[in-house]
Amino acid sequence: EFVRTEAEYTKTKMKLGAIKTFILAPSLGGMIAADWMAHYPKDLSGAILINTSFASWSTFWQRLQPQSYRHILQIVLKEKDALARESEVVKMVSNDRGMFSTHAKNWAKVFAARPIHISTILRQLLAARDFAPSKMKLETPVLLLNSAQDRMVNPQCSEIIQKTWDCPMFTHPWAGHDIPLDDPDWVIEKTVLWYE
């Protein structure tokens, strides 16, 4: 409800009126978008869900792969050191090793300006763990994007959604969990291809 209310406020404030509204929703955002579309199918013209997964559709260890557990532990342990913590986050969600340091520094600056308490991160993980939408196909058009090399969420999770909802999907060959971070041009290219 909060995201929907904020979206309506933004559309009104920007005087966007009845334009087509699409949402780009990675990971937990994909779960929120799926819930939004299930409850308010006329709100959005379409959604691009990236490396998302749903409880009861995939196993816990597919939805949060074991190799990410040590990063999560380090994130919790390094709560007070923003750069060290964000370095762990980047290592968990990105495969563009040449950009790890740059991304971590940028994210640490964002965190300094807008701190997030570790309890919020843990609540997000719990919310993601429990999210299980209906398997009934949505009215709103959906594009799925996933990465064959996602080390956080098994790419099979997106494949299960694709088969269940019978929607198009593109698979990135090398990006990590955060495809828009690793290869934004690819995300734009596939979104435009789907939209056209």
Please characterize this protein's 3D structure.
With 196 residues, the protein is of the alpha/beta class. Helices cover 52% and strands 10% of the residues. It has ten helices and four strands; from the N terminus they run αβαβαααααβαβαα. It has helices at 2-13, 28-39, 60-63, 69-77, 82-93, 100-113, 118-130, 156-165, 179-182, 184-195, and strands spanning 22-26, 46-50, 142-147, 169-172. A four-stranded parallel beta sheet has the order 1-2-3-4, with helices on both faces. The chain starts with a helix and ends with a helix. The mean pLDDT is 88.
Brief account:
The protein is of the alpha/beta class and 196 residues long. Helix content is 52%, strand content 10%. It has helices at residues 2-13, 28-39, 60-63, 69-77, 82-93, 100-113, 118-130, 156-165, 179-182, 184-195; strands at 22-26, 46-50, 142-147, 169-172.
Question: What topology emerges from the helices and strands here?
Answer:
Blueprint: H1 2-13, E1 22-26, H2 28-39, E2 46-50, H3 60-63, H4 69-77, H5 82-93, H6 100-113, H7 118-130, E3 142-147, H8 156-165, E4 169-172, H9 179-182, H10 184-195
Parallel strand pairs: 1-2, 2-3, 3-4
